[in-house]
Amino acid sequence: MTKVDVPITPALLREHKITPEEFERIKSVLGREPNLVELGIFSALWSEHCSYKSSRVYLKEFPTKGPRVLQGPGENAGAVDIGDGWAVVFKMESHNHPSFIEPYQGAATGVGGILRDVFTMGARPVALLDPLFFGDPDAPRMHSLIDGVVRGVGGYGNCVGIPTVGGMTLFHPAYNKNILVNVMAVGLVRHDRIFRAKASGVGNPVLYAGSKTGRDGIHGASMASDVFDDEKSKRRPTVQVGDPFAEKLLLEAVLEVLEGDAVVAIQDMGAAGLTSSTFEMCSRGGVGMKLDLTKVPAREEGMTPYEFMLSESQERMVLVVHKGREAEVIAVFEKWGVDVATIGEVIGEPRMELHFHGETVANLPIAPLVEDAPVYRRPVVFPEPQETPVVLVPSVSVDEALRTLLQSPNLCGKRWIFRQYDWSVQTNTVLGPGHDAAVIRVKGTNRGLAMTADVNPRFVAAHPERGAALAVAEAALNIACTGARPLAITDCLNFGNPERPEIMGQFAAAIAGISRACRALETPVISGNVSLYNETDGRSILPTPTIGMVGLLEDVTKAVPSAFQHAGDEIAVLGETADELGASEYLATVAGVEAGPCPRLDLERIRNVVDLLVELADKSLLSSAHDAAEGGLAIALSECGFGPARLGADLEFLTALSPTSFLFSESSGRVVISYPGSNRDAIQAAASRHAVPLEVAGKTVPGRLRVAIRGAVVLEMDVKEAYGMEEARFPRLMEVTR
Amino acid sequence: MKPRVVVVVFPGSNCDRDAAHAAELVMGAETRLLWHGETSLGDPDLVVLPGGFSYGDYLRCGAMARFSPVMQSVRAFAERGGAVLGICNGFQVLCEAGLLPGALVQNGGLRFVCGDVHLRVESERTPFTRRIPAGTRLRMPIAHGDGNWVADPETLARLEASGQIVFRYVDESGSRTPEANPNGSLDDVAGICNEAGNVLGLMPHPERAVEALLGSEDGAEVFRSFAASRA
Description:
Helix content of chain A: 25-40%
Structural class of chain B: alpha/beta
CATH superfamily of chain B: Class I glutamine amidotransferase (GATase) domain
Number of strands of chain A: 28
Shape of chain A: globular
Structural class of chain A: alpha+beta
Largest sheet of chain B: 9 strands, mixed
Number of domains of chain B: 1
Low-confidence stretches of chain A: 232-236
Number of strands of chain B: 11
Order of helices and strands of chain B: EHEEHEHEEEEHEEEH
Oligomer: heterodimer
CATH topology of chain B: Rossmann fold
Largest sheet of chain A: 7 strands, mixed
Strand order of the largest sheet of chain A: 8-10-7-11-9-12-13
Low-confidence stretches of chain B: none
Shape of chain B: globular
Number of helices of chain B: 5
Strand content of chain A: 15-25%
Distance between the termini of chain B: 9 Å
Strand order of the largest sheet of chain B: 2-1-3-4-11-10-9-6-7
Mean pLDDT of chain A: 94
Largest interface: A-B, 33 and 31 residues
Number of helices of chain A: 24
Mean pLDDT of chain B: 96
């Protein structure tokens, strides 16, 4: 594709995923046929990935405002006030399609991209979380996909020096041919140093900084907007290659440049590279740009305008700088050994003029490609939620079921993964991986930030609206278990093919559920990402709206760990357990059935539990708090014993449920707490004030977990043995060579 | 008097701020981050080569950083008896630069490894351990892919004989076991010093273990010992 003036054939349109209707629209916008460069630009900006054309009408439903929100969706990342003039900046993104094709580079560049979104805002990245969704561990290629993704996340994040403090890992056959790699980045910035990507000032120079542009990743944005089939394997070269060392230098250079006041606007080149970054900056500022593509630093000889505009080479930024201040900006990039070049200037007319060797190779209006891009209200069929209760006759004992769950891929220990991530660099990690939420301190203040990423896709599949709301509720409980108050969320909405009405139905219902929960819990949506077309050979993934949440601890020294701390502490369970085995891990793993309704959700109750946990932590009444989620109370109680003290518990409950229902139901809003017995009265009083049911169940003891119901022992297990099983499973799973 | 500490920043260093923070917190040090292109160290009491991925660890860990202009000054400083502490990547740079013997190769498990380890103080030969009785057990984090220290048998014997092996990996009870060694390093070596004792390199991160809030204060002993040994 070297020539600009090639005839636009139907085949060329198909290759660019431009529909005949869209092509008519392009011709009417331009009043002529586009040339090849322009077609490429339309194709990228109108792709699902960049334009959100299928999802945009629904995303408007999200609550995005709140008293602490400094920046909502629409910028590189969102920002929330955390006091003392500091803001937390965060966002989550997917890198699903590239990671399936080339797991190491796909995951690595996913980390790189989301870090740039954060430091482009002027924030220093302080943490990463990586929610990962894999297929059946025994599925073809799955071992190498898991291994490659974990190495890729670690290889990039470790090198740049950002601790990976949390995440989640889920296995389900629905991801066999569409793994999901979501990455969340969190950064810190002073309020008055938040930078935005709004170009302005006619005559201001446009600078390019970062790695040279190569031919990698051309059309990554349109690849991410397509379903896979074997034919598409020829798209392999569209995966980009990451260079974390270049990212580290770019990060330091950008943060140093942003300390001054020479920069008007800055944006990273993510999907659709130079195209989306420049068009979006112009769109936000209502201006245009004139660029000379011959000035763009090139990695290869003979690159064409088409390639310059659509390359997704990594570790690159576009800056608009105050006229006359270029030299000081350029000097900083040069100090850090980062390539930098002036490639054009801001113009008043909202158009993009691209020049190459003296020729005009594209001349396009901004608005029709960005804010007025096509919006589709695709046909929607709302799936019938599963509400028929599951009737189950347990075929195994409680002990045996717990052993099976502890050794299941979903519930076994994931130390094998997070030992490969540097989670203590930057010396802020108070609670690292393995807790309900990670907690980092904010140096120079007393505060701490709690962060988590969560979703139960099985719940969302059973009931998209409630399942998505449950994901927000679960994230809020994770945050509150550490004693932090939930602040806001980011999301990564991973779904199947939006051209299928039932997938759009899942999507619309999930957005409604997230919105409802976020309103109830006062956690606005401040940023996010949509990944559609996660479908291969006609099979879609489970609907996976991953929720990333950040919370604030006013006093980080009061952070509450998840595991039991002291023998002899009293144990109580907050919330109520109902007969809710539907869509549970028990049902899927032990009984081999995926059916039934997901648990009920009472958002007022969740809110009360959150308030209670925050109050108990603030008064330093708790030794530990851990929420009961996948695997129910049995797994939660076991995990409480897996801290350094390896403590068991001696417990008796008064439930009327069967042992299996009681111990493995996944009813929402339950938390296992432990505390010195002398705090019992204060805790009970607080619980009744917050209208949260509390059952005092027993004490922590060394060595054994023993649970009785109304006098009859229903579960007894050696904690070290349980830990050994849970711990050994994942490494063993990864050892098997195939 | 406050100790003056210079922390060298190579392109790709990422524990430079952490080291400065720890030195300030534990020793009340006056710290200065020094870009690798500089050659003037000033008149510090301690030079820290911090952890990270200098030059991306491309080619070989520390192999490029040893050619940085600042390293000539660091070498001269060390030869005059100045105290130099190389942590993780800094240890790798010191080995590449020939300021410490042996080399650091890829972990035996072939994977990056992060987590807490236990170290046993084996020698009081350096100012960094002079005030910590030999046999003391310290808990602190590691985070590295290439921490597997190797040397020929003669070098190992010489280091052992002259008390240059400063830290070894041990288990919680203080015993050397194969499981306690996270990277397969020769003879469980975690840190060594030069013959004069003024240059110390270690793979674990004492600067990450100076506050109870973050899980361990044992690393502070290393900085305290240095500060006390000056007095």
